[in-house]
Here is the input.
Amino acid sequence: MSRPEAHTATGAPAVERVTLRPPRLPSWSVAALAVGSLALGIAIGLIGGFESRVQWGLIAAVVFVATTFWLSAAIEGRRFATDRMAAILVWACFIVAVLPLASLLWETVARGLPGVDWYFLTHSMNGVLSWQDGGGIYHAILGTVQQVLLASLIALPLGLLTAVYLVEYGRGRLAKAITFFVDVMTGIPSIVAGLFILSLWIMMLDFGYSGFAGAMALAILMMPIVVRSTEEMLKLVPNELREASLAMGVPKWRTILKVVLPTAIGGITTGVMLALARIAGETAPIILLVFGNNMINGNAFEGAQSSLPLYIYEQWGYGTEAAYDRAWAAALVLIAFVMILNLAARGIARWKAPKTGR
Amino acid sequence: MPSHTKSTARLGDRVFSNLSKGSGIALLAIMAAIAVFLAIRAVVAIRANEGNFLTTFAWDANADPPYFGIAVLLFGTVVSSVIAMVLAVPVAVGIALFISHYAPRRLAAGIGYVVDLLAAVPSIIYGLWGALYLVPQLTGLYEWLDQFFGWTGVFAYDGTPARSLMTVGILLAIMILPIITSVTREVFLQTPKANQEAALALGATRWEVVRMTVLPFGRSGVISASMLGLGRALGETMAVATVLSPSFLINASLLESGGGTFAQNIASQFKEAGSMGRDALIASGLVLFLLTLLVNGAARLIIARRKEYSGANA
Amino acid sequence: MKLRLGAVLVSGALVLLTACGTDDNSGLPGAVDFSVENLRCAPSGTLLASGSSAQANAMEVWVNTYQANCEDSQINYKATGSGAGVQEFLQGTTAFAGSDSQLTESEVEESRRVCRDGGRAVHLPMVAGPIAVAYQLPGVDDLVLDAETLARIFDSDIRRWNDPAIAELNPDARLPDIPITPFHRSDGSGTTDNFTSYLNASAPEAWPYEPDKSWRGRGGQSADGSSGLVGMVQQNPGAISYFELSYAHQNDLDTVRLDTGADEPVEATVENSSNAVAQADVTGEDGDLALELDYATRETGVYPIVLVTYEIVCDRGNNPATLDLVKAFLTYTAGEDGQRALGEIDYAPISDDIIQQVRQRIDAMD
Here is the structure.
């Protein structure tokens, strides 16, 4: 603001203020422009009689962008005007993206929260008709927990040992083949994994629907994630550690178990937790494989089970108000479940993060 | 005594190395078995098919003789994923920049965190939200599109519920936004500080710093993040199945209902499928698999190239 | 150490988790009292069944009643649609299938692979009910349509609610100028089969397609299962669709009255559909009880779009492990208690002489 004055004052010899800083808009001007354009947008909207509030907002946005650019270009120059445009654009991206995501979280919490209570968490759907209120998700939580645990029982040992093999032992063609197939498998669509187990286990080998069948599909999805993340973490372990241990005469296998793995344990656990969170929300293969059940079935190896994602899908399918309420409540529980796994993963990562840099 | 420990050490080493090698082989065997099994079933179905697997607009895989084709599915999968990419990538880059270079630092950390958590929200919840909340909201937008762009035919809209490929694309865009953002942000944050400071010292504005240092450095990272998102979008099942009104025809308008995707078609058809029907679905699943493989492979190539590039730089 | 502690914590949490849940929902406000007298229970066991979503509501009540009265018995009926139910039955993964349409001859042949002792699949009519045509139209709560108009609506030939053809049938209604969205099933369904049988029988020119479990008409939108259609009609003004009356009533949806050519339009009610079922003929042979309905009826008080849903079982059983449970459960559903329960949820019981035969068939399963 002081710059134009300085310009006019160049004639006066006494006050020769030379500054290298280019003229800038004062920091309050952006806010002022925003408020101004919003008012103008509302005014035009009211006068023009536009129904939609969205149109008001759009008009205000256009006015804001245009005036900011014009003003900035006039006072600060084109480069700074472009800079301001870019900043507005980035902010706009942020707002545009935050709207639906915030809405998703808000809807789930707002519609789900009234339905979640102790009763909901500890009862099954036995005896509750689809158009009645009430019932619970206990059987679904139990199913999800069991299926995820079984899946990790299958996938973790295989995945971890494979990663150890690839990093510590693997040379030559076998290692290459394993790396290639693991890469291929990370891309397998979950529904295709489900279809594979359905065709092989249930249709050809005639084992019937069960939580275990679902767990096997989940394990297929989990293995490549575990291998890849563990591999990355093991590679980060500095070779000096291994060499120091080996130099002291410690056999290789004990070096791996006592030195390498403990060093990388934080990263490995994080990877595993993230993989768990990922498969806990898987719906498609579960729908194909566990059949669904309204009662508690604690035996994952025999008989139909339920699971949280499947429960949400079922309740959504019933189409009644009571069922929608249950679907939202279960969705909230599922999000909470996944979030807890995620937060745990982050906590472990921070807690166990290698203290030393490379 | 020493010889004894030595032998147990050797035994332990042998046991452990064989164990890890064995599990590697087991994993390989499982993966190979899946691939071979799926391929065999797919070939059985395609051999028996009366229609043309690539061009037929129908899915009567249970009929005798079976008659099915993936034309509609391929179209729907590609179109909805492309819409998702077009919508999501620019916005995701914007948010990533916002977090890495524009937002106040404390806000940025919080947002980055929330974005990471959103990447983990199960797809069925996006589907539930999409079907019950998003679809009704979109009618107004589609009417507006129809009003101004309806003449193109691509944006014609008849006022029926918005359960179309466009809606699927929008929902997929929202779903893959967090994952693209979080990977892109990581890459942007790794831009060498020296380069940025050099640019600033030359008097560059913030945008010029971004344009001249951050974006060139992060370009391949953005591409591989997008590919990752694309892979997710291609294979997404439940979110699509809940918001789309499926049918076996290709609609000229993206806003009108109809169409289908590979994953959605498998989810809605498998339960009625006899053994031939299942084989046909497996065949379509294999095509989806190849499609994702292509995308992932491309992403991996780009990442690998970037590693060399940045390695040479460092 | 810490890992071990973690393991202890996890297993402790698991023990807690398995201990604190319960199947007992009888304390809920508005919980249904499922207890009935003299229900003959089979030894405990579990069985899986799947199929028609048209009878899903009846099955929900039956299954819950049976489970409430017979401890340690689990029956899982998954309403996946008739097509899916028949497939799963033919693959031998379920004990019986619920279906709204009859098996084809080749399907009956296929059933010999899963049926024991050279048996085959037979149809047991168990529930009947009107297929209501429900709609959501602001300001219109009484709507009359005839077969031809219905056929043209569902074939996307009539596209707006104020079309002259609809106005002619409803001179008093104020029909809004909004698009019609007809919703059909995206999955294979006996409901679709019955509904299109009616359209084809009563208005063959407007509906030239062969009746089929899959939808053959043009245009419109689709959704999965009867309940999926209900959701669509609820959410979308201008929507029209077809599903069982019980779904329409549970959700307070308006249903269309049909102008069949009788003195006055007939409403979709349990009574009007019972009249249609009473006129059905048994066409099955050798102990099979498949029924044939007259879709083109013009009689007063007879609602023509009626669906008879069958339980499809092997006449000599399929899996010895579940046979007793299947028999006990179906004996209950076909018995007086089971059939009486139907009226309360907008289904029609099967007429006396036919249900007698059904009970004999069930007894003879061995």
In short: The longest helix of chain A spans residues 78-112.
